[in-house]
Amino acid sequence: MNLHFKNRIALFNTAAAAITMLVVFAMVYAMVYITTYRHLDSNILEEKAELFSQISTVGDSLVFSLNAEWEELEHNRAEVDPIFLQMVDDQGTVIFHSRNLENDQLQFADSLTSELFFNVELNGKKIRQGQFPIKTESGKIIGQLDIGISQVDSILILTNLRNTFFVAFPLMLLFFYVVTSLVASRSIAPVKQLIAYAEKMHYNNINPRLPLPAHQDEIYQLTATINALLERIETGRNREKQITADISHELRTPLTSIKGTLEVLIRKTREPQQYEEKVLQVIHEVDSINHIINQLLYLARLDSGNISIVKKPVKLYDMMVTIKNRWRLQMEDKQMILRLDIPEDTLVQTDFGLLEMMMGNLVSNAVKYGHKRGQLLCYWQADSRILSLDDDGPGIPQEHLPYIFDRFYRADVPGSSAVQSTGLGLYIVRMLASIQGIQIEVNSQVNQGTQFFLHFKE
After folding, report:
1. C-beta neighbour count of 103 within 10 angstroms
2. Can you give 359-372 as a three-state secondary structure string?
3. What pLDDT was estimated at residue 234?
4. DSSP class of residue 99?
5. In this model, does residue 85 exceed pLDDT 80?
6. DSSP states of 437-452 as a string?
């Protein structure tokens, strides 16, 4: 059954109310039932006290006088609420009964040692009966007194109570359902308003924010949370637009350079040495394109979780030499130096390809943002198993440090406006470090350079 949210709320609340009403009615009914029968038993006990005052024993014989109490009209004829009296000796013989019993008799026990109350029927009518043993002074039971009182009033009260509940119960539930449904409809009106506003939004139009309700309740918190989410979506979308433009620019630049170089080469015949230089330039530009594409591919693989790790001993020195050679032309253009302070036999247990990409991204950032004639130092701390990469570049402002590993984040570093970056390099570094169980830290001061520390496990 597909019910609206307000109807489900009303249905659940009505079910809870139904259970509550059933429990309350059961308790009320039980209290009335117990009270009613206690009242009947109390009347029987009062009658018993008056009658026992008229009974005496001589030896093992009963002696009783037919005074006014025994001759009362309520004992003589069947009134609306008659009281029935009966006396039985120890042989089970009825020796006295009130006139309203006529030819009937009350039930009695063959042997009775204590007071007893129970319900019986007499001529089709229900009565409450009490049985009381009659004892001599020595404690011997020589008979019993039976007193019966009509239950007509008690049964009428209990029947009316049940009928009232059976009639009122469905009416109350229906009323409760309608009222709860109206209240729920009014309560979720702000949600419907949010839905109406949200339906007007689309990818290119998320600027309008949802109106905040007047009351600072859960709906207010939900609205504020959605607005914060929209803010993050818009920020991410703007970053992605900027990144798309930057990636397009970064790809266009080497492609334009490659095209220009090839066009120059085909204009006329040149010396072999010139061809070699131009080919090296083309290779360099192709490497730049490769680097961007690799980052995008790794980003897609990271998002899909499709990254396989093959851990084996990796020679840090050989790996860093490979990275140094890969960025040699860029460092020569900026007259930068990368010094390696790593023993050639240093081994770490990790994935060679993933670690190479991590260090390649770090070196790439240092070269792109570093000063001309700057210096890079990569060194190994054997005792703490930390691989560090230091540069003397412009540094990163402290307010940006907590976010530099975020996806698409680009810190506003002095002199970085001319640097084209996707904002993915350090994000990929952090993700790959996490995958390999490598802890990465950064320390930076403006105009004093930046240090990256990679902590390897034993």
Report:
1. 5
2. HHHHHHHHHHHCCC
3. 75
4. G
5. yes
6. T-EEEEEEETTTEEEE
- In CATH, the number for domain 193-305 is 1.10.287.130
Cα 224 to Cα 22, 189, 201, 235, distances in angstroms: 42, 17, 16, 16
At 433, list the tokens: 């470090």
Q: Under 8 Å CB-to-CB from 398, ≥6 apart: which residues? A: 444
Query: What's the CATH architecture for 5-159?
Result: 2-Layer Sandwich (3.30)
Burial class of residue 254, CB neighbours in 10 A (0-12, 13-18, 19+): buried
Range with the lowest mean pLDDT among 148-162, 219-233, 237-251, 432-446?
A: 237-251
Name the CATH code of domain 307-455 (choices 1.10.150.750, 2.30.130.10, 1.25.40.880, 3.30.565.10): 3.30.565.10
Which residues lie across from 64 on neighbouring strands? Answer: 55
- Contact 192/220 with Cβ under 8 angstroms? no
Domain ranges of the chain: 5-159, 193-305, 307-455
The CA-based dihedral angle spanning residues 177, 183, 188, 190, taken in that order and rounded to the nearest 10 degrees: 160
Q: 385, 434, 425, 387: which is closest to 406 by C-alpha?
A: 425
Quick one: average pLDDT of 13-31? Answer: 91
| Residue 32 bridge partners (DSSP) | none
User: Residue 146: beta bridge partners?
Assistant: 86, 131
Residue 376 belongs to what H/E stretch? strand 375-381
Bridge partners of 349?
313
Which H/E stretch holds residue 299?
Answer: helix 272-304
